[in-house]
Amino acid sequence: MNANLLLRIAMAIILLTHSVFGMFNNGINDFGNLFLNQIGFAPYGVLLAWSIKLSHIIVAILLLANKYIKLAGFVTIFVLVMGIVLVHFKEGWFVVGGGRNGVEYNFLLIIVLLAIMFPDGISKKNKNNS
Fold first, then answer.
1. Coil, strand or helix: which one is 124?
2. How far is CA 103 from the centre of its chain?
3. Which Pfam families match (predicted)?
4. Does the pLDDT at position 53 exceed 50?
5. How many structural domains does the chain have?
6. Which of 117, 112, 106, 14 lies closest to 60 in space, CA to CA?
7. Which of 94, 118, 123, 129 has a CA between 20 and 30 Å from the CA of residue 26?
8. Are the CB atoms for 113 and 66 separated by under 8 Å?
9. What is the domain range of residue 18?
10. Is 23 part of any domain?
11. 68 φψ region: left (φ > 0), alpha (ψ -120 to 50), beta (else)
């Protein structure tokens, strides 16, 4: 069993629930029309919103299949960083408690993805070690 299987399952569940429900309650279209289009992405806000959510579903499947992990991670980290920049940063750190809608959740998801992508850590291999 892969050491990060539980992290991959948890991340897949988060990405799927964050995406699938919006497909059935008009949340993705609303995000595209009422947020992305309003902050300068018009007329592509809805297309961008759907692209983001579909990428979450594809990444969830890749995480569960343990395939293309680094590519999936980099794509999702990019989306999460853009979420921080465009949505969450102005709200501060806390999601709840000391604030609302802050960056802490995205930060945690990024760290989990990095742990999945680099289960042995990131090290510079030096061939000249004595």
1. coil
2. 12
3. DoxX (PF07681)
4. yes
5. 1
6. 14
7. 94
8. no
9. 5-117
10. yes
11. left
